Structures are given as C-alpha cells and as structure tokens.
Amino acid sequence: MPIAPASNQDETKKRDGKAKAAGYMVALSGTLYTLTLSKTSCVYIDYRNGFWAAWRESHWNTDKQPSSVKIIAKATTFDYVLMKTKAYLDFIKKIKQ
C-alpha cells in the first residue's frame, strides 16, 4: 500500500483535520477519505502512486462494481484536490436545490 507523503505525523493530522472539516470520514489516516452523498453515491479522496485523486462512485442495487465513476481531480497536493472536490460538491448541492 502506498504511503502518502508526510514527513511527520503532524502533516498527517493536519490532512485528517482538513478532511474532517470538509465533512469527510477518515478511512485510512493520511491516505484515504470518504464522503457519502446519498444512499447510492460516495466521494473518495485517495493517495496512489504519488498523486492524490478524488472521484465519485455510484452503485445501484447490491452491485459490487460501480455503475458510474466520475473523476473529480488528480494532483500532487492534497489541498488542491480537496479544493476541487469542495467546488464539485458545491456544484452538486446547487443542482439539487
């Protein structure tokens, strides 16, 4: 499993705090964060192969494979991906109103 770039535990705690403040649940400290949008959709932020990636998955019925996947952002910095994901979530909220 790839380890997110963190020179110390303080950076990991800051990342976890930023994710929690944005409404995410810490799935794997410093590496994986999840947010449930509805009973069929979730947003994930994950660190893989030197990049942070954010995407939304939708699952219908009890399928293990997602019925749709939308890549929200991919970058080398967590803050950028979190910012782009927040903008995406604001857009989704605006559409639902």
Mean pLDDT: 89
Uncertain segments are: none
State the total count of DSSP E strands. 5
Oligomeric state, counting identical vs distinct chains: single chain
- Rg for CA atoms: 14 Å
Q: How much helical structure, as a percent, in the residues?
A: 25-40%
* Order of the strands making up the biggest sheet: 1-2-3-4-5
Q: What is the terminal separation in angstroms?
A: 40 Å
How would you sum up the major sheet?
Answer: 5 strands, antiparallel
Kindly estimate the percentage of residues that lie in beta strands according to DSSP: 25-35%
By secondary-structure content and strand pairing, the structural class works out as alpha+beta
Helix-strand pattern: HEEEEEH
Task: Give the overall shape.
Answer: globular
**Continuous helix count:** 2
What would you say this structure looks like, in words?
The protein is of the alpha+beta class and 97 residues long. The protein is built from 2 helices and 5 strands. A 5-stranded antiparallel β-sheet has the order 1-2-3-4-5. The radius of gyration is 14 Å and the shape is globular.
